[in-house]
Amino acid sequence: MKHLGILLSGRGSNFEVIANNVSAGRIPDARIAVVISNKPDAGGLETARRLGLTTLLIPSKGKEREDHDREVVAALKKHKVDLVCLAGYMRLLSPWFHPSLLPAFPGLEAQEQAYAYGVKVTGCTVHFVDEELDHGAIIVQKAIPVLDSDDEHTLSARILEQEHIAYSEAISIVLAGKYGVVGRKLVMKPKAR
User: Fold this and answer.
1) Burial code of 54-89, b = ≥16 C-beta within 10 A, e = fewer?
2) What pLDDT score does 62 carry?
3) Nearest by Cα to 162 from 101, 89, 91
4) What local confidence, expressed as pLDDT, does residue 96 receive?
């Protein structure tokens, strides 16, 4: 059984889908060991409590990034976390330690950036985390056509739908461990015959 640690800063819609998929067995051999937020008013914390999960508030306000990250890492270790999932966690992590079609539109408001730019295809990406913003090797990507009838809100809603699917797929891939990372590319290992 693999232990997941969820870091979130907001409402936690990705987290909720992950929790439902873990509970339904769609992410096999996994359990959520702890949900951590840096924001006291994060809706995801309340959702986690409602689901009976262990929650922690580790405020980041007024702390150096490294000091805060060390507190988070200590909590993750205490809960024997095997995989850390950032589900709307709005902080860059220290070197030792977001939905967009990367690398075109990193950071916040990626959907608005794509819509304003006039792209015909956008989407979402689940990737490994490194010290740079939206930079790590891509695990799963979903492409979504931009319809003539779309506005920022309808496009964002359609992207979020796919993001919920992609995140659970990515967790399953990582937990199965049948991949390697070559440069910036995730490469699936061939299946044994």
Assistant:
1) ebbebebeeeeeeebbebbbebbeebebeebbbbbb
2) 87
3) 101
4) 42
> What share of the chain in percent tops pLDDT 70?
84
Rg of the chain taking only CA atoms, in angstroms: 17
Helix (H, G, I), strand (E, B) or coil at 9: coil
Same domain, 75 and 147: no
Residues 79 and 169 in one domain: no
Range of the domain at 23: 1-96
Listed residues 57, 75, 96: the one ending a domain? 96
More confident residue, 108 or 78: 78
Distance of alpha carbon 142 from alpha carbon 163, whole angstroms: 7
> What digits encode the pLDDT tens for the residues 46-92?
999 999 999 999 998 888 878 888 899 899 999 999 998 988 887 66
Candidates 3, 79, 98, 127; catalytic one: 98
Q: Which helix H or strand E contains 171, and what residues bound it?
A: helix 152-176
CATH number of the domain encompassing residue 71:
3.40.50.170
Cα–chain center distance at 164? 9
Say what the pTM is: 0.76
- What per-residue confidence (pLDDT) applies to 41? 93
The answer to whether 153 is a known catalytic residue is: no
